[in-house]
Specification:
Length: 181
């Protein structure tokens, strides 16, 4: 990244924020809402002749699947990244859960990755793979890979990831001035 040396030396904001969004997750959330609606419809139109047990199982099953799909997808519609002087915080979805806060004192280095895909991680969401580490993947595209003390890695898909890496590296140099990045 020698061609970006001037950008690395430029002053950075006190708080850097970034976000990545996946609009496809809304389609999956609609599918979850449709399952819930089907369960409610079955409960309201309970003119089943095959018995109450089959009706209860159908209603509960549809509503349970609908809730799981709905809330499971809404949790990963977007990811927000906040980087301040002390830590990096990742929050998912509208509620902000799951959430992870990583103190910069635990970060060894940050790397820009131009192409992260859900296929590399086994899908969208909060992922862990023994050979790759942990990741929050909400869409394909650019991302950040944090190298943490202890040999662990944490990958985040976020827009303008290259800028985030520059800020993280500048903060790491400020923590350890003799560190040569």
């Amino acid at each position: 990244m020698r061609e970006h040396r001037d950008a690395e030396d430029a002053p950075h904001p006190d708080v850097w924020t970034g976000r990545a969004t996946n609009r496809v997750q809304w389609v999956l959330a609609l599918a979850g809402a449709a399952c819930m609606a089907l369960g409610i419809e079955l409960a309201v139109q309970s003119a089943w002749t095959s018995g109450i047990i089959a009706l209860v199982m159908s209603v509960v099953g549809c509503i349970a699947v609908g809730l799981l799909v709905l809330f499971g997808t809404l949790a990963f519609v977007h990811v927000d990244l906040k980087l301040d002087r002390d830590a990096l915080e990742v929050r998912c979805g509208h509620v902000g859960l799951p959430r992870r806060r990583i103190p910069l004192s635990q970060v060894v280095d940050a790397e820009y990755i131009p192409h992260v895909t859900p296929r590399h991680w086994g899908g969208w969401g909060y992922r862990w793979r023994p050979e790759k580490g942990t990741a929050v993947v909400v869409r394909r595209g650019e991302g950040i890979v944090l190298s943490l003390w202890g040999g662990h890695t944490f990958t985040i898909t976020v827009d303008d990831a290259e800028s985030a890496v520059r800020v993280i590296r500048a903060r790491l140099r400020a923590i350890t001035p003799d560190n040569a990045h």
